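Weekly modeling sync, notes
Attendees: AB, CL, MP (scribe)

Item 1: holo prediction request
CL wants a bound-state model with flavin-adenine dinucleotide before deciding which constructs to order. AB pointed out that an apo prediction alone won't tell us much about the pocket. Agreed to run with the ligand included and paste results into these notes for async review.

Input as submitted:
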Amino acid sequence: MPDQLKLYGADWCPDCRRAKAYLDQHGIDYQFIDVDLDKKATALVEKINSGKRIIPTLTLHGKSYTNPDNAALDEILGINPTGVVVMYGADWCPDCRRAKRYLRDAQVRFQYIEVDQHEWAAELVEKINKGKRIIPTILIDGQPHTNPDNDTLRQLLKLDEEKPQKSYDVIIIGGGAAGLTTAIYAQRDRFDSLILEKKNIGGNAWLTEKIENYPGFTNISGPDLMDKMEEQARTYGAEIITGVEVTGIEPGEHCFTVRTKGDAYQGRSIVIATGSTYRMLGIPGEQELIGSGVHFCATCDGAFYRDREIIVIGGGNSALEEGIFLAGFTKKVHLVHRSEAFSADSIYTEKLAGMQDKIATYLDTTPVRFVSDKAGKFKGLEVKDNATGKEKLIEADGAFVFIGLLPNTQPFKDLLDLNERGFIATQGLAQTSIPGIFAAGDVREGAIAQVAAATGEGVLASYGVKAYLKG
Ligand SMILES: Cc1cc2nc3c(=O)[nH]c(=O)nc-3n(C[C@H](O)[C@H](O)[C@H](O)COP(=O)(O)OP(=O)(O)OC[C@H]3O[C@@H](n4cnc5c(N)ncnc54)[C@H](O)[C@@H]3O)c2cc1C
């Protein structure tokens, strides 16, 4: 029996949802095993990952893969824009070598299965070929092809079709709330738009369990809200390509060339909407508890902790500002900072000094690990006193990490003016330092880092694009 692809994960885990959505999108058959409901599965995941409970973990044909991103899934499973390719062959077979080389030269991803190593694979090949063991046997989107020559492969995979050298009115880099909104507005203005997205459409909001502050929805899950935005952008005709990471922009005489790993796209204008990444502590338990005990946004998730006890981690302006804000309605805040003094401005440290009844401070204290109970429910944070080396558990109902935001501006740092923290500086209608390139959402200097704000910035950028293209 062929091995079925197994995805070990949990419903609350954003990357599990991302991987499941990607497999579903490409019609890949897999079995989902919820590690929260299956102790054996948890033990297996921990064994694969040297004691760490990292999900999603995937297994296939005796190999395991820890939290592969969508590009890695493409490689593992042979996912291409023209189809999913699986080749059954053997190392000693000349035609298999020929076909493998041809596909590699044509940059076609394929899953390769040695029939000599898997009895089930040999049986499958014999079944396909009416009892004969003919290799290579190649499945393209599940359809078998017995020892196809290079010409047949070229036709089947549409390799000789010239890639359209289409030029877009606007290329939007990043498919989060800001990018999708720009596309909706640009399409309605009759501008051809293309979204290039590194992972999956939806951005950070897609990773959010519950959104309670997006106007029009008292409570909506992040994936539901972002799926609606994606549907709206597609309805108006926006083109969307996922799994492509933009590596740079080259300004030309009449248009910009946007480079990705392996491809290039032409656009008359560009909107950068690549968002930012919350800095994480990188300690055990953090990844597993994101969204269910560990949070990075007080405005978004603080309300879940009304009259409850929480831990805030960080010592800069945002940690103190958010800690003071959270202390306004929670029962108690435990503020943990690894240095001997807070680095926040005195306006915050002075306020903090007057709130000792609500905020307990732990300076010179390093977070060690987040702790959950047997049911996976958040229990607290284990910390180490730097002076004594002693460790202790601070028990609470949840924790908020405020140790900074990292803008996703690496590919643009040599091209555009960025501020000292790496965010893109803009003026007017979201205009960057280069005319024709705009920035919207969390990647922009001064952004508010909320979904509603990001959609507003998408509107602003679309107006900038309109003025630029018509000007
Ligand atoms: C855990 C969490 C909870 C949150 N909860 C809420 C909430 O309840 N309410 C609220 O209003 N806000 C919430 N936020 C904030 C909100 O998600 C963001 O403000 C919003 O998503 C910003 O949208 P954006 O489009 O600017 O960026 P993002 O959503 O970050 O989208 C940027 C996109 O660009 C892609 N990208 C990055 N680099 C590249 C590249 N080089 N090439 C191609 N694509 C690239 C990324 O993969 C991503 O999909 C939360 C954020 C987090 C992390």
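Recorded for review: The first strand starts at residue 5 and ends at 9.
Action items: CL to compare against the apo run; MP to circulate these notes.
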